[in-house]
Write a structure and sequence with these properties.
2 domains, mainly alpha, single chain
């Protein structure tokens, strides 16, 4: 199978967009296009019948005129309209989709994810004068060095515990 079931709606949407773009480019609507082509077929058949001068058996000549007229019309239709539709389907509509996608504003994730006070700049500051040449950084969650030591010990204990459990069952 060439297409997955989930891809079908997108392909139909692309074809629909291409058809809308195609009709807009032609300056018509789908009913206008159909009626225009029906009139084109009738005129083609009429001209074919007149040019051939259908003499003799009327049914045989009309049948041949119908065959020739429809063949000519189908060839002209394919030569004129299929390349235009394919252009809209493969080039114009994807280009419009890309352009529209590039103009979409990327959402600001800070709206949805609350940041801890240390990162968003609202952490309470310790008010004391800083001597010239001395800069101190105070983390919002206590002494950072001590917290890192405690975390590394907890991680080490967890890993040892998991290792002991695994070796117990092996």
């Amino acid at each position: 199978m060439l297409l997955a079931v989930s891809d079908t709606p997108f392909i139909w949407e692309m074809a629909g967009r291409a058809a809308s773009s195609f009709f807009a480019w032609l300056g018509t609507t789908p009913p206008g296009f159909v009626v225009g082509n029906i009139l084109g077929i009738i005129l083609t058949l009429l001209v074919t019948h007149i040019v051939r001068g259908a003499r003799g058996d009327m049914s045989e000549g009309t049948k041949k005129d119908l065959e020739i007229g429809l063949t000519v019309y189908a060839i002209v239709f394919l030569i004129l309209f299929v390349p235009i539709f394919v252009y809209h389907l493969l080039i114009k509509v994807p280009s419009e989709i890309r352009t529209r996608a590039e103009n979409v504003r990327v959402p600001d994730m800070r709206q949805w994810i609350p940041l801890p006070p240390l990162w968003d700049g609202t952490a309470p500051a310790i008010r004391r004068p800083i001597a010239a040449g001395q800069v101190s950084i105070v983390p919002a969650y206590g002494n950072l060095r001590e917290r890192c030591i405690v975390l590394s010990q907890e991680i080490g204990e967890f890993v040892e515990h998991r290792y002991d459990q695994q070796t117990k069952y092996d």
